[in-house]
């Protein structure tokens, strides 16, 4: 017994690894089984004839149905158009309250020459009286062309219990026949009637629906793929973390596996704003390949193989979206010529290519290889993922040792991996800001090498034009002491120069990309009045500074001066508020009523001027938004809200969200006795940057919100994700809460498990969304 105990103790890590592997395999297997039970073999119907008044019997056996003239079975008209694809038929059957406890209903689709082109069967025990029943063919059938032969269906052996509803009539052009018969002996084979015209015939139309799609067992493919990937991520993460691998290696390996899972999990064009990102990347790819970009009407030109799938709106979800993607993932041999006009308008707005480096490279490579639309989309997603992982791993490696768990945990959250596994430009934005934040926090504690100083300036220049709301994050460079940016042996003020250069480059990029949007937001503001007031305030400030310089050594005059300044400020606040709230014009009641569109939205949105003139309404809107949408914003930060939340509500369990929050806190809290290097002013500045980013996100969303809305429109929690490492770093430097032992590696492993749960649950949520009843 002691030997066994010693053996288990020596190999406890191996047993723990096996236990983790078994648990991961069990969870993945259950998720796949549950998904298959819910979505497999689900048909989609298309009504052909829904008007029926009579019934006709279906022969019980092929022998009983065979008459003296050689007729076998019941033959129904099935009109198909050229190129139409069906997976089966749906018939309204009646048993006259008899329960069919055995026997099988067989069906064979015949072409104009009487050849069976598809076969199907239905267990009679599943038939409900006077209810449509689906007969799925063994393989989908696509009509090759329009035949000129006409036929009707014939009746044999009418004295049977199982009957079919139909309506009299003879105005159908019939190009296919459906033969039906029942038998408990499954060895019976289909035989067609003699075409001698001697059969008893009934002219009419059956109660008929086409099965135009069927989910089949495609859930097995997607569940096995995601199950293998999540299993590999969890087991590999456990092995790497327990063997003391570096956290950047964990992010690179496990993030790659989970990111690939998200690339398959998210249906085509369902990632956040993915269809707009696809259009931009496709446009730049065509430019690189020397292909025409737009037609004479400035509509984006695409390849002929891309045209059926290229959309100007968020893609569909459900098991059929997965089926479509997996069926066509291997399409190849597509022509590289862009000769088909899409629905996307090519604008003259500049495209920030630094946010699309990975996507453009992947799409261009796929087009050069002749891959179809789905293969092109997947390769674009994977290249975007590669860029994000390179930047995220670099951020973890750059960050201070005690903060690396924070950056690793945030990098492995479900939301950033979901964005990286799509065509979203946010993946590059996250990578740039993660690296910049980590670099600034590191250079605060030690002198910079010249490549690091250059990297800080370059990253600031990339962040400026990335998204308008992240410009305040560039101010993080000012937390670096000037002494840490000095070059050895040089007396130049390198630190201040580098900081000013970073800020100037970021501001220039911001102006180039975002000035148009900023001017639009301020479209109804008294710009001239504001400039005059600003000039007067600047001149007054200069005079007051000069006066202060002269009296600074006289305590009595200085006290009077400061009191006068305070009185002026107190007086200026209500005057300025009054001026702002009465600035420019306003909307008349007639304009408000006339602004309502057919969809109920007003054509006017919350501009800067409207907000100033309607501060109470704006405050009410924000308060309602916090109560109504606050949980969704948190989900958007963590990644438990999948896809495009504005279009589809696909939310994972709130339990996973709580787990994410606890894991982040575990990675963020300092160890007991750890020194707190950030000073009060630095922490105040950090919180100020975070609040500025959040405030700008609200202002941006308000600019999209119609004035008749009761909650803000378009605000998503993912907009705050780039500053999440900064928030957690500030939490790490608190003086109130601490942990006794480091928990960062356990927190990172918990993050891996939770993200894997989101992927497995997300497959079920996506696949079962809007399933047909």
Q: How many DSSP E strands?
A: 15
Helix and strand composition category: alpha+beta
CATH architecture level-2 label of one domain: Sandwich
Report the CATH C-level class of one domain: Mainly Beta
Number of helices: 23
Low-pLDDT stretches: 62-71, 146-160, 183-200
- Tell me the radius of gyration: 34 Å
What proportion of the residues is helical, as a percent range?
A: 40-55%
Distance between the termini: 60 Å
- Multimerization status: single chain
The fraction of residues assigned to DSSP E strands is 5-15%
Q: Indicate the overall shape.
A: globular
Using the coordinates shown, work out and report the CATH topology of one domain: Jelly Rolls
How would you describe what is shown here?
The chain is built from 23 helices and 15 strands. The chain has helices at 2-10, 12-39, 62-65, 218-242, 247-265, 274-289, 319-327, 357-369, 373-398, 404-411, 414-420, 426-443, 450-463, 494-521, 527-551, 555-581, 589-594, 608-613, 615-638, 654-668, 680-702, 724-732, 744-767; strands at 43-49, 54-57, 74-77, 85-94, 104-110, 116-123, 131-142, 163-168, 177-183, 204-206, 208-214, 299-303, 338-345, 641-642, 650-651. It has a domain at 44-214: Jelly Rolls (Sandwich). The chain is 50% helix and 12% strand. Mean pLDDT is 83; it is low at 62-71, 146-160 and 183-200. Helix 20 (654-668) crosses helix 22 and helix 20 (654-668) runs antiparallel to helix 23. Strands 1, 2, 4, 7, 8, 10 and 11 form a 7-stranded antiparallel beta sheet that branches. Strands 3-9-5-6 form a 4-stranded antiparallel beta sheet, with no helix packed on it. Strands 12-13 form a two-stranded antiparallel ribbon. The chain has 773 residues and is of the alpha+beta class.
């Amino acid at each position: 017994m002691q030997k066994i105990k010693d053996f288990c103790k020596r190999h406890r890590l191996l047993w723990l690894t096996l236990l983790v592997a078994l648990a991961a395999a069990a969870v993945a297997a259950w998720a796949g089984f549950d998904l298959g039970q819910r979505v497999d073999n689900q048909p989609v119907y298309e009504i052909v004839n829904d008007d029926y008044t009579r019934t006709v019997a279906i022969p019980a056996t092929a022998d009983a149905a065979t008459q003296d003239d050689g007729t076998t079975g019941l033959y129904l008209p099935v009109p198909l158009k050229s190129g139409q694809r069906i997976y089966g038929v749906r018939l309204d059957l009646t048993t006259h309250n008899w329960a069919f406890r055995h026997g099988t209903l067989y069906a064979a689709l015949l072409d104009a020459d009487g050849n069976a082109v598809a076969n199907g069967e239905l267990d009679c025990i599943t038939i409900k009286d006077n209810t449509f029943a689906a007969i799925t063919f063994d393989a989908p059938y696509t009509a090759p062309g329009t035949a000129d032969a006409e036929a009707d269906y014939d009746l044999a052996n009418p004295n049977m219990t199982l009957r079919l509803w139909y309506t009299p009539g003879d105005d159908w052009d019939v190009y296919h026949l459906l033969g039906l018969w029942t038998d408990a002996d499954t060895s019976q084979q289909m035989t067609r009637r003699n075409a001698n015209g001697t059969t008893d015939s009934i002219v009419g139309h059956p109660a008929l629906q086409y099965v135009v799609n069927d989910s089949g067992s495609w859930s097995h493919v997607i569940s096995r793929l995601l199950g293998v990937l999540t299993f590999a991520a969890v087991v590999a993460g456990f092995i790497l973390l327990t063997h003391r691998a570096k956290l950047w290696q964990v992010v690179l390996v496990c993030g790659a596996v989970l990111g690939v899972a998200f690339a398959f999990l998210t249906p085509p064009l369902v990632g956040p704003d993915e269809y707009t990102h696809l259009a931009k990347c496709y446009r730049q790819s065509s430019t690189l390949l020397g292909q025409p970009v737009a037609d004479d009407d400035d509509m984006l030109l695409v390849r002929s193989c891309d045209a059926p799938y290229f959309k100007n709106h968020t893609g569909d979800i459900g098991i059929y979206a997965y089926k479509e993607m997996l069926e066509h993932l291997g399409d190849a041999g597509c022509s590289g010529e862009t000769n088909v006009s899409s629905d996307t308008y090519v604008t003259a707005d500049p495209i920030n290519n630094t946010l699309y480096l990975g996507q453009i490279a992947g799409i261009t490579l796929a087009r050069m290889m002749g891959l179809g639309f789905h293969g092109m989309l997947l390769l674009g997603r994977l290249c975007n993922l590669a860029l994000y992982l390179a930047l995220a791993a670099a951020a973890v490696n750059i960050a201070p040792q005690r903060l690396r768990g924070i950056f690793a945990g945030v990098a492995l959250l479900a939301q950033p991996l979901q964005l990286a596994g799509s065509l979203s430009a946010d993946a590059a934005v996250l990578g740039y800001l993660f690296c910049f934040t980590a670099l600034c926090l590191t250079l605060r504690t030690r002198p910079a090498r010249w490549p690091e100083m250059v990297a800080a300036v370059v990253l600031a220049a990339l962040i400026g034009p990335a998204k308008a709301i992240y410009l305040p994050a560039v101010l993080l460079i000012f937390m670096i002491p000037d002494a840490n940016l000095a070059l050895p042996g040089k007396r130049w003020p390198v630190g201040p120069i580098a900081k000013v250069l970073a800020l100037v480059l970021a501001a220039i990029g911001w102006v180039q990309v975002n000035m148009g949007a900023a001017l639009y937001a301020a479209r109804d503001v008294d710009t001239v009045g504001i400039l005059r007031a600003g000039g007067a305030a600047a001149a007054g400030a200069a005079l007051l500074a000069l006066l202060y310089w002269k009296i600074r050594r006289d305590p009595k005059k200085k006290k009077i001066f400061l009191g006068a300044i305070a009185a002026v400020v107190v007086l200026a606040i209500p005057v300025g508020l009054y001026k702002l709230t009465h600035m420019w014009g306003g909307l008349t009641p007639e304009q408000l009523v006339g602004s309502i569109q057919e969809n109920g939205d007003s054509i006017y949105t919350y501009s800067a001027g409207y907000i100033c003139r309607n501060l109470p309404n704006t405050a009410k809107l924000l308060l309602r938004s916090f109560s109504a949408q606050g949980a969704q914003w948190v989900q958007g930060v963590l990644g438990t809200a999948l896809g495009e939340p504005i279009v589809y509500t696909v939310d994972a369990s709130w339990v996973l969200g709580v787990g994410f929050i606890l894991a982040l806190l575990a990675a963020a809290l300092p160890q007991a006795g750890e020194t707190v290097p950030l000073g009060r002013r630095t922490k105040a500045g950090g919180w100020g940057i975070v609040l500025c980013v959040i405030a700008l996100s609200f202002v941006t969303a308000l600019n999209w919100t119609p004035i008749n809305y009761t909650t803000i429109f378009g605000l998503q929690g993912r907009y705050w994700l780039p500053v999440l490492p900064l928030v957690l770093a500030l939490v790490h430097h608190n003086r109130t809460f601490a942990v006794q032992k480091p928990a960062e590696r356990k927190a990172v492993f918990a993050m891996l498990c939770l993200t894997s749960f989101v992927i497995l649950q997300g497959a079920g949520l996506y696949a079962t969304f809007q399933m047909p009843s």
